[in-house]
Structures are given as C-alpha cells and as structure tokens.
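Blinded run. Sample ID left blank on purpose so nobody reads anything into the name before looking at the predicted structure. Input follows.
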Amino acid sequence: MSANYHNPVQSVYGAGALSSLPTLLDGRRAALVTFPEARAIGLLGRLESVLQGALACTIDQTRPNPDVAELASLYEWFWREHADVEVLIAVGGGSAIDTAKALMVANDAASFSDLVAGLAGERPFVPTRSKMLIAVPTTAGTGSEVTPWATVWDRERQKKYSLHLPETWPRYAVVDPELMLSLPAAVTLQSGLDALSHALEAIWNVN
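Blinded prediction complete.
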C-alpha cells in the first residue's frame, strides 16, 4: 500500500514503493546513482530487476560527503557519455542524492569547473541543461529527497558549498521503509535524531 504527497516534490511512500519506479520513469532512460555497498547487500540487484531495460548506466562508487576532486571526472564523463539520459535515480543516503544533484545540471560546455566557480560565488552558473531526479532515500536524516539542496565539499580549499538551484529539486521522492530494514540500529538512531534536529530547527530558526 503506497500513498502520495506533493510539496512540490511528488512523494510516493509506503512498503513496496520501490516498485513504482517504472511507472514514474514512463518509458524514459535512466542513470542509477547509488553507494558501493548496494551490490553486496542485494539492493543493486533488486534495482536492476525493477528497472530492467530502462538503465543506461550505473554509478555505484559514490563517496560520503562528495568532494569536488572526486566529482570532476565523474561529472564530465557523465555529460560526455550520457548527455541523452533523461532521468537520474539516486538511491542511498544524503551523499548519493547530493552526488546526483551535482550531476543533474550543466551549462553548454558541461564544465564542472564552471559549476564549482558558481558554488564558490566566483561567477554565476546558469544551467542550460538538466535531468529529472528521482530520489530514493535509504536512511532518515537530511530530507534531501524533498529539497533542492546538496552539499559539495572542497577539502583542498577547506570549503563546504551548498548547491541549490531551481533545477535541483527532485521530481519524485520514493520513500520505501523496506529499504531501511538492513540499517544497523546505531545508524537508524543517528539518522532519526538528525531528522528530528532538522525539524526542531525549522521551528526556532527565524530565517
């Protein structure tokens, strides 16, 4: 049994909601962005089964707290080899979803350095191309699946950037609690407390 909610992100949630992905794709080709352990725990195989015939590529080496040094080559490869892919499906925690958000927008040159310059406030970054994003969280926490925000790190400069553009809103959030059953208890507790702290902050923060 699944339900729907719109915030403006259309949310599909409930046990088994993952099976709604083919309907949401509606015949579009997709790139899957997920975390390295997804294959070992059987999640990648499940996704490939659900998405059979729709996947153009799989990016399963996302890193925690994605850094510009790691994202640069991935970004330019993606826009060079898969510019025609219409949809990104991000499955994982905040870092997988943040990686997908960084990949989903490009200018005419598809230059990652231009995106970073925009994040750093050095010059405006105006996307001329973007992908639709379906975000599938596997933890509770930041709520990245229903916001346009992504965190991108630049450890060399000791900076942390916030990516947020009108184009980086996910189109759909698919929240399937069955995907969280394999989480260790400590991670479930930590991510749940993170979600609670964000909710409390929204109450007292005057901004």
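Unblinding after everyone has recorded impressions. The chain has a mean pLDDT of 92.
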